[in-house]
Amino acid sequence: FFEDNFQMCLEFPAQNRFIIAFPLICGHFSNITNELCPEERIHIRERSLSVINLFLDEMSKEAKNIITTVCDEQCTLSDRLLPKHCAPMIAQVVNKKKRDKTPKKLEFEKPGWESYRKTREDLTTMDKLHMALTELCYAINYCATISVWEYTFAPREYLHQHLETRFSRALAGMVMYSPETSEIAKPSELLNSVKAYMNVLQCVENYVNIDITRVFNNVLLQQTQQSDSAGEPTIASRYTQWYSDVLLRRVSAGHICFSNTLRSFVSLSAEGAIPFNAEEFTDPTELRSLAELLGPYGIKL
């Protein structure tokens, strides 16, 4: 019954602000023990500790899921601002002028259209997510610590740990490395997504009093090593493997040469061969982005 009411409160955004009451109640369980029933003391103690850990973990997971959804949406919007999306728009405008001189409404939607509102009453998905995040973070930020028996629980540390784990997994997914097809994200595009993700995480500090800089330092420093704390491949290891196994192998085979004019490696594709644009990964912009991602430790790899 106790856990069911907590789940109902967690699923109802208007009640999220008061959900911290459930962990706080666990701190009063020690007051119901009685000397006439000493055998209940152990059970009540174990139950209260397990329940408060469950409550704080579920609250942090829900906040983490909301933040992840916002981060994914912002990464998508940031990706639409990349120069690679300009060519289709320019081509469509040119083709329309050639076919018909009368002006017509363009079919594509420019970046930023999602910011226009017809009325103030219309709430977008992002508005609802930010409202839910505000209410939930208010509960997490309500008290710094909760004492249950001889243990002290810190709700903000639960959220900090979940955000750190999620940010590390998100970075691994942004690389989009595929050993089968030897495909990997361009460093500049990856850097753009990482900055968009970090901007959202920095906004979390406006809702709850946690040190997001500590999350960045812990996660990004691990990404410059061969493997992270969980033993998973990092950004540095994947790009090191890709540049050595894919790019340098083509250079040694004579399929890629260096161009002093373009200041990057260019592909010498033979007829019938699968096209590979080395300049997309070796021009100054991409190498600067790669150096910014890997840092001094990752470059040494």
Q: Secondary-structure element sequence?
A: HHHHHEEHHHHEEHH
- Radius of gyration, CA atoms, in whole angstroms: 26 Å
The neighbouring-strand order within the major sheet is 1-2
Q: In angstroms, what separates the terminal alpha carbons?
A: 54 Å
Task: Give the overall average pLDDT.
Answer: 83
Number of strands: 4
Structural class, by secondary structure, is mainly alpha
The helix count comes to 11
In what range is the share of β-strand residues? under 5%
Notes on the structure:
The protein is mostly helical and 301 residues long. It has eleven helices and four strands. The protein has helices spanning 2-11, 21-26, 39-79, 86-99, 125-140, 155-175, 187-203, 212-222, 235-252, 279-282, 284-299, and strands spanning 146-148, 151-153, 256-259, 264-267. The strands form two sheets. A two-stranded antiparallel sheet has the order 1-2. A two-stranded antiparallel sheet has the order 3-4. α3 packs parallel to α6 (155-175), α3 packs across α7 and α7 (187-203) packs across α11 (284-299). The termini are far apart.
In short, what is this structure?
The protein is mainly alpha-helical and 301 residues long. It contains eleven helices and four strands, in the order H-H-H-H-H-E-E-H-H-H-H-E-E-H-H. It is 58% helix and 5% strand.
Features of the shown structure:
about 300 residues; mainly alpha; two-stranded antiparallel sheet; 11 helices; about 60% helix; about 5% strand
Indicate the topology.
Elements: H1 2-11, H2 21-26, H3 39-79, H4 86-99, H5 125-140, E1 146-148, E2 151-153, H6 155-175, H7 187-203, H8 212-222, H9 235-252, E3 256-259, E4 264-267, H10 279-282, H11 284-299
Antiparallel strand pairs: 1-2, 3-4
Helix pairs in contact: 3-5, 3-6, 3-7, 6-7, 6-8, 7-11
